[in-house]
Amino acid sequence: MRLIAKILVAIAVSFVIALVTAWAVLALWYRLPLSELARGAAGGFLVLLGLATIVALFTRMRIPAVAVFLAVFGAILIWWNTIRPPEHANWAREVAQQVSGTRNGDLLTLSNVRDFEWRSKTDFTERWATRTYDLTKLQTVDLFMSYWGNPNIAHVMLSFGFEGGDYIAWSIEVRRRIGGEFSPVADLFKSDPLVIIASDERDVVGVRSNFRQLKQIVNERSQCAIWTTSRGVVRRHRWIANCLRRQRCFRRACGRASLLFQPWVPMRPIAASCLMQVFRCTACQVCLLRPPTTVPMA
To answer: Is residue 13's pLDDT more than 50?
Structure first.
């Protein structure tokens, strides 16, 4: 019986070592500042070390093998925690500016609001503006989810509508460098930092619906006479944006940023309905929910 228990424990530990080894190999491949050959060699060494440790679990050498593995992995963790997002780089023009804001009572003033005029995915007129919004005139909140491939993964955006037809849309995006390509896996390993884009809805939503090759954009709106919760969400976006301006963050986002504000999260349309129900339950007034609609692709 003891022998069976030891075997089961060894199998469980082997599974953990395999997962840890896979993460460490990817971390070295994407972030080690060496040539591809050197990164490949480092990854190969870790794979061999992980396999040797797993084999040693079923021998009398298991304790020294695990100790060596933990020492190597600890060194990788120390190195990993020294990686900081760059403050200055040759950023792509559409993510070159980080929004920031100040609040005076119910007046919210945002700097570096993006207001691009898009003619194609790469052709646009660049404009950055400073705008002021009266939070007491907030009327609607729209949740947009843009799908480009896997139906279980979407880019989430929130847009707030004010009296007079003004809209301010918020999108947390990967801050690419000029010539850089989007890679969901690489961005999980600190390849690019985050940036919060506050934008005219025509800009950040329109570029996805009209020019980028997306499958669909799902939109759900909730309206309320006194949208206290939405005003709080707007203020939180401003707070997170200022945090990012002071201290750069990678993809896991700034401390309190909830899953809703992550740049890429698994999100089915039903999750949007649940989200709107949360807003509905916490707002001061009963809100009228509009069924989800699909923004047609141009």
So the answer is: yes
